[in-house]
Design a protein that fits this description.
The protein has helices spanning 4-9, 15-20, 36-41, 86-97, 125-138, 167-181, 201-218, 240-249, 308-322, 329-338, 345-358; strands spanning 25-27, 33-35, 59-63, 66-70, 74-78, 106-108, 116-120, 148-149, 152-153, 156-160, 185-189, 221-226, 252-259, 262-269, 276-277, 285-291, 296-299, 327-328, 361-364, 367-370. It is α/β, with parallel strands linked by helices. The strands form 5 sheets. Strands 5, 7, 10, 11, 12, 13, 14, 15, 16 and 17 form a 10-stranded mixed sheet that branches. The protein has a 3-stranded antiparallel sheet with strand order 4-3-6. Strand 11 (185-189), helix 7 and strand 12 (221-226) form a beta-alpha-beta unit. The longest helix has 18 residues, at 201-218. It is globular and about 90 Å long. It starts with a helix and ends with a strand.
Length: 373
């Protein structure tokens, strides 16, 4: 059966064009002349039948042991600059290579017949190579030489896109590499680089829909990382219209953030305003910390020394007051009082001292500001 809706939308030829090359055209069911190739480009619509066989959910990614991403879908990780969001994609690559190493509780379910593709549009080649060194240490490549062949990881392709300034060039190269390698999962570390303007609704919606179409047509999954809006560390909403559309279309969304009472500890969680996991548990959380000996983040135990709600309240107060500003100790205390964050100067002074110790505040030359992350 022909798809009449597609036929109505398809470009029609004139009667004169048809007469010149009748073999190249067909007469449509709805009238008009159509290039025969048009019919091939428009797939018949899929009729959904209640008794049709169901395809079981096949996890491509798991987080904290729970299903997190299936084939043909997108998952998103949000991370403020400086929190180490590239470590998420590196952990996924490590899990693909060696499921027994510390993968920060992100587990990939590899396809033995297809590779993994990592796209990095933001880092230089040297920075990407540093990331490869961390992956090698994480998978213990020295004791597992079979994981590396011909100067690269087995079943893994890593490409930097910094040399492509135009998003159209990036998208073209992405499609070319997918056609070449036929991966089962594509990691994009910095997905906002695929649009010129993160607030251009048409561009952003089309780009996200393009990724979804690629995932569906090529039977693969995407895991994308994005930054939150600058200075918006209260709800961690991802950047612009692009971020909103990406998380709306994502099967699952997680957040990487610093612990409120220990800036060296990271929290990876689905428990935040925009977090979700459509087909699994959505209250998942894990912790990791930078290890100087191994030069990478490793999983750790974490017990908050202050109540999370109180820490978030203080973080919001200092973000609201010091967003791009530097204030003296006295002026900062007065701001906390005048905005009703604190009821006494003693409480304001304690907040400043506690957050300076926790690394949320930074003091230089007698002026206080937010610690640059």
């Amino acid at each position: 059966m022909r798809n009449f809706a597609a036929e109505l939308k398809a470009p029609k030829a004139t009667h004169e064009e048809y007469l010149k090359n009748p073999d190249n055209y067909r007469i449509g069911e709805t009238g008009g002349y159509f290039l025969k190739s048009v019919e091939q480009r428009h797939k018949p619509s899929l009729e959904i039948l209640l008794n049709a066989p169901r395809t079981p959910i096949k996890s491509v990614l798991k987080f904290c042991g729970s299903h997190f991403l299936r084939r043909k879908r997108i998952s998103t990780g949000i991370g403020p600059a400086g929190t180490g969001k590239s470590n998420l994609t590196e952990a996924i690559v490590s899990s693909h290579l060696n499921s027994h190493c510390d993968t920060l509780k992100i587990e990939v379910v590899p396809d033995p017949e297809r590779p993994l593709l990592l796209i990095d549009p933001e880092r230089t080649q040297d920075e990407i190579l540093e990331g490869c060194d961390r992956i090698a240490r994480r998978i213990n490549a020295d004791n597992n030489p079979e994981l590396v062949t011909a100067e690269r990881f087995n079943g893994v392709y890593i490409h930097g896109f910094l040399q492509y300034p135009n998003p159209e060039e990036k998208l073209f190269e992405l499609e070319r590499l997918i056609e070449l390698y036929k991966p089962y999962i594509v990691l994009i570390d910095g997905a906002a680089s695929f649009v010129l303007d993160v607030n251009d609704t048409r561009e952003c919606v089309l780009t996200v829909n393009k990724l979804l179409a690629i995932a569906d047509n090529e039977d693969l999954s995407f895991f994308c990382t994005v930054h939150p809006n600058p200075g918006q560390q209260n709800d961690f909403k991802p950047r612009g219209v692009f971020g909103s559309e990406l998380i709306r279309q994502s099967e699952s969304v997680l957040l990487l953030k610093r612990a409120p009472d220990d800036r060296d500890t990271r929290i990876l969680t689905t428990s935040f305003m925009h977090g979700k996991n459509r087909s699994g548990a959505d209250n998942l959380e894990t912790y990791f910390r930078w290890n100087d000996e191994h030069k990478m983040f490793l999983s750790c135990e974490y017990n908050p020394t202050v109540k999370p709600a109180k820490a978030e309240e203080q973080n919001k107060a200092f973000n609201d007051i010091l967003n791009g500003k530097r204030l003296t100790y006295k002026d900062l205390g007065q701001e906390l009082l005048s905005r009703n964050f604190c009821k006494s100067i003693a409480t304001a002074n304690r907040w400043i001292g506690d957050n300076l110790e926790r690394g949320i505040l930074f003091q230089e030359d007698g002026l206080y500001c937010l610690t640059p992350f």
